[in-house]
Amino acid sequence: MAHSSSQPRTIASRGPLNGTVAVPGDKSISHRSLMLSALAIGESRVDGLLEGEDVLATAAAMRAMGADIVREDSGTWRIHGVGVGGLLQPAGALDMGNSGTSTRLLMGLVASHPITATFVGDASLSARPMGRVIEPLAAMGASFSDTPGGRLPLMVRGIAPAVPIRYTLPVASAQVKSAILLAGLNTPGVTEVIEPIATRDHSERMLRGFGADLTVEDMPEGKRIAIRGQAELRPQAITVPGDPSSAAFWLVAGSVVPGSDITITNVGMNPTRTGIITALRMMGADITEIAPRTVGGEPVADLRVRHASLTAIEVPPELTPSMIDEYPVLFVAAAFATGTTVARGAHELRVKESDRIATMAAALNACGVTTREFEDGLAVDGSGGDPLPGGATIATRLDHRIAMSMTVAALHARAAITLDDAAPVGTSYPIFFATLDRLMGTDA
Ligand code: S3P
């Protein structure tokens, strides 16, 4: 799925990675900071916003719906919101690029406003299922014209007032949960989401921080999250912690490349996001947490990772929601472990930016790694710490995490690995390769 502006890139191993890196702002939190600031009355300020393409798509969409969003030189963003219920009719289609989070969360916001918005995206996003948000938002009263199969391009016709619902999530998805809560923000009465399996809770934390009336309760059937609609949001000053999903590439690189010693500063440690650290530690990774603290209502720490011999594990399926974006790089860690790592219960990987089970199986196979594909996961035979044969060209399929994961694989391979297109890295980690050069000492 490489496209006309593809940027091929070849990565050769060059020995250990050493140094200190600060990962960019958390993608999930960055999206939500812009959306909620755009709904507050008054000026919010966001420091450490991820300036990747996905988040910039959210910024452009919120501007198109009336918010005043300005980037200052320092990388600080200032947002003047329109107030809950105040979103304006966008003049043109909202281009979501590659971003599923922007699309699904904004569909929720539009659903309870008296406006109509058309969502378009790239080939990857246009293949992803939107029925999972259409169903609950339609129950709230919004109407949809979608491409067959519940895909983009699609049009959302919002309604005000929308009708509150009580909805049990059929898939463990923070995006679906958040879309409903955001729709509930401008819906009179109490909108409830029941979450049988806990997913990332950034929306809940941040909605509360902005002053929304939101409660979370543990019930026998799962977490019950209730939002009382049509409250006013108060502007906030937000500091976005570093993205644990971006830190994951360095955690694996540091673990598998002999002689490495990397410190990653300011990493978000929200327990709904740290499954990769748990899994890597189960495999024998040497990861230490330094100076745990709280930043902007989220737990944060610095992490030090040193090379270690990894041993294969059966990945506990209950870790799936807290490491859903980290499976591609976990499969790379598995490729260097002793024994066969088996990950099951991760069917959702089939509907991410690419089919991450098939894409990673093909990529690892091309580099000389034996894998066995399941409908809901992958088994990966490890090299016992030896370098991979490598020497292949990888189809990254418009998927940033495939590009970065296979870059990590290339750091301990006998022959260089080429990405057919490294451009997708810009969606979540624009300075990934510059940081890699620094850690390898090749940036002089
Ligand atoms: C996200 C939720 C997850 C994750 C995505 C970001 C979010 O998606 O994969 O990268 O910010 O809510 P799902 O909700 O589809 O699992």
TrEMBL record:
GO molecular function terms attached to this record: 3-phosphoshikimate 1-carboxyvinyltransferase activity
GO-annotated cellular components: cytoplasm
UniProt name for this protein: 3-phosphoshikimate 1-carboxyvinyltransferase
Gene Ontology terms describing biological process: amino acid biosynthetic process; aromatic amino acid family biosynthetic process; chorismate biosynthetic process
SUPFAM superfamilies: EPT/RTPC-like
Task performed by this protein: Catalyzes the transfer of the enolpyruvyl moiety of phosphoenolpyruvate (PEP) to the 5-hydroxyl of shikimate-3-phosphate (S3P) to produce enolpyruvyl shikimate-3-phosphate and inorganic phosphate.
Chain sites annotated for binding 3-phosphoshikimate: 27-28, 32, 173, 175, 325, 352
Residue positions binding phosphoenolpyruvate: 27, 100, 128, 175, 356, 401
Recorded name of the encoding gene: aroA
Active-site residues per Swiss-Prot or TrEMBL entry: 325
